[in-house]
Amino acid sequence: MDLKEKEFVKQVFSKNKEAYFTSSTHADGSDLELLVEWLSPRHDFTMLDVATGGGHVAKQLSPHVQTVFATDLTKDMLENTKIHLNDYSNIHYIVADAEQLPFLDQSFDMVTCRIAAHHFPNPNKFIKEVQRVLKVGGKFLFIDNVAPEDKLLDPFINKLEKMRDYSHVRSQTITDWETLFKSYNLTITKQISRKKQLPYVEWINRTLDSSVDKKRVKSHILNSSNKVKEYYMVNIFNNNIQSFTIDEWMVMAVKVL
Predict the structure, then answer these.
(1) How many angstroms separate the CA atoms of 188 and 251, rounded?
(2) Which of 165, 174, 212, 257 is most buried, judging by how many CB atoms fall within 10 Å of its CB?
(3) pLDDT tens, residue by residue, 37-85
């Protein structure tokens, strides 16, 4: 199943490589502005950006560190990102699985991963690998969509994401992630949760072409309960969805052992 899910990721991101580079959700997030403030990078640092996608984190931090290794499972995505970030000469691109990183133990001063982990079949393997390649005292900055703890709201958003993008595996809850961090001696030092608004048309067109599939997604939202619509702040005008929000978690942790 893991291999199948990872092939899905390659297919989706190869097809939509340019869309993920230009996506307002990925390219313009306010969280990007906080990266330097939170991480306090130094010019002698070597950093790893896991599942770099459009390279937005690598681009943001590149001027502040010595070397960036930007990895991604999808070769086509990396090649496209490299073209766009050609002026950033200290970024090196490596095709790599987040759950099996091709680096020696304690290789990096910082590790980042942004809006990607919901595609990983085995989050525990990913966190274990982050802990392994991070130096003692090194910082891990993680950002991803998260599911609410509520047993009604969690299934809704994960089903929606899967309908719209078959490479989606699961948005974990914050409690899920906190448990994993603790298991691998990553001590959380700072965190924020926020509502992230998604422009519906851009969001659905980034991954879906079929009008039938788009209709299914729209129906899933429109036929949801009032509780769901209120929580996700679904904005509807003339029976058309304008936008909605999802939960996002930004956290920084330090490797203590």
Answers:
(1) 7
(2) 165
(3) 999 999 999 999 999 999 999 999 999 999 999 999 989 889 999 999 9
What is the amino acid identity at position 48?
L
CB 243 within 8 A of CB 199: yes
> CATH no. for residue 177?
3.40.50.150
Q: Is residue 41 part of a domain?
A: yes
Q: What is the pLDDT of residues 31-44, one digit of tens each?
A: 888 999 999 999 99
Residue recorded with tokens 């790599």: 96
Integer CA distances (angstroms), 140 to 12, 69, 161, 172, in order: 27, 14, 26, 18
Give the whole-angstrom CA distance, residue 77 versus residue 98: 15
Helix, strand, or coil here: 182?
helix
Is the Cβ–Cβ distance between 194 and 250 less than 8 Å?
A: yes
Show the domain range for 64. Answer: 2-148+168-196+248-255
The token duo for 16 is: 């939509």
Establish if 17 belongs to a structural domain: yes
What is the 8-class DSSP label of residue 105? T
- Domains in the chain, number: 1
Rg (CA), the chain: 18
